[in-house]
Specification:
It is built from 13 helices and five strands. The protein is of the alpha/beta class.
């Protein structure tokens, strides 16, 4: 799924980390930051805010080493480079007359800002908890956070009473920023795209955790490596399960399309309406229960509201269908197929309705 995005997504993540090779050369870092953020916005927008998470780690180091001058210089350089890159990107969009208004509208100036912000934050919390609790992975993630807190405590031990409070405040702010940038700027968008593929900041948030783990005692560092290893192992389990579920769903979709084709031939159908959505494949039910994350990642592509349904029919050579959108069914017509997951009703000659809702008719 979304194979066309793989290369630009990978490139955007590469360019966003590249400037930090030259972090100690202010001129090169600034110039490359502007270029990298501009390219990342063009390749895959959500990866651009990962820059802020990485910067926060370097700023914590600068502040902790009491290099306050460098801290403020790099803060200004990083902020201005991001702002300049965004301005340049906006100018290019305007010159090219690309209409992205629905995707870029912010809630900051909206009259219901607080309510919209609460809704977006609530949606993010819901999605991240589903991710962290899929397949009992909560034990892995919460162990990681516990070791990170331990490392943070050891990091703060080196500071005097006078300096420890400012460092705690900076770490707390950076941690909050890193956490809420996991879904990029979705939290501040009016029409956010809440899909896990937009959570580009998640690996960089784990990098943020790894930074503090490096200050833990030796046994804590070793334990952290084990936890990260388990995370990698769990990701392979997720990929394996996703591949199996995708195969099951594809086979179920194929079965449905073949059934529609049979009905089309037997009844000389030229027009079709889909009401509701084809359910998930029965063989996937148990996996959905164990890994609730798949509710957000994988579902049927065949529904009355989905462009992919028509595209799916076209893949099987069913080009001569007229697709008519409906949002209800008045129980008229003749029931010709009564399936466990859907009904097929012949409304008139050449026209059928596929009712996935299985409307209860007298």
């Amino acid at each position: 799924m979304f194979k066309f995005d793989c290369l630009p997504m990978a490139l955007s993540l590469f360019v966003i980390v590249f400037p930090f090779i030259f972090y100690h050369n202010k001129i090169k870092f600034y110039a490359l930051s502007v270029l990298a953020i501009f390219l990342a916005l063009g390749l895959y927008q959500t990866s651009a805010t990962a820059y802020v998470i990485i910067v926060s780690i370097f700023l914590i180091l600068k502040f902790g080493s009491q290099s306050y001058k460098d801290f403020f210089i790099h803060t200004i350089l990083s902020a201005s480079s991001f702002l300049l890159a965004y301005i340049l990107y906006t100018i290019v969009l305007n010159i090219g007359e690309f209409d992205l208004s629905n995707k870029n509208e912010m809630i900051v100036t909206h009259e219901n800002f607080i309510k919209l912000l609460q809704n977006n934050v609530g949606q993010f919390h819901e999605d991240i908890l589903v991710l962290f609790n899929s397949g009992n992975s909560a034990y892995i993630y919460y162990s990681l956070f516990a070791i990170s807190l331990l490392g943070c405590a050891f990091y703060l031990r080196k500071f005097s009473i006078k300096n420890i409070i400012p460092n705690i405040l900076l770490i707390a702010i950076c941690c909050q920023v890193a956490f809420y940038l996991i879904p990029s700027i979705n939290i501040l968008l009016k029409e956010s795209y809440w899909a896990y593929r937009s959570f580009s900041g998640l690996p960089f948030f784990f990098l943020f955790c790894a930074f503090f783990i490096s200050y833990a005692p030796k046994w804590g560092i070793q334990l952290g490596r084990v936890v990260f290893g388990l995370m990698v192992l769990f990701s392979f389990i997720l990929m394996s399960q996703f591949g199996r579920m995708l195969t099951n769903q594809t086979e179920f979709n194929d079965y449905f399309v073949n059934e529609i084709n049979r009905v089309r031939i037997e009844n000389k159908i030229t027009k079709i309406s889909l009401l509701g959505k084809l359910p998930i494949a029965h063989r996937n039910y148990q996996t959905y229960q164990v890994f609730p994350i798949f509710d957000k990642l994988l579902s049927s592509e065949i529904s009355g509201h989905d462009y992919f349904a028509k595209n799916y029919f076209n893949q099987y050579g069913l080009f001569d269908f007229e697709h008519k959108y409906i949002d209800s069914y008045d129980c008229s017509g003749e029931l010709i197929v009564d399936h466990k997951y859907y009904n097929i009703i012949k409304v008139e000659d050449g026209y059928i309705i596929v009712d996935f809702n299985k409307t209860d008719c007298p």
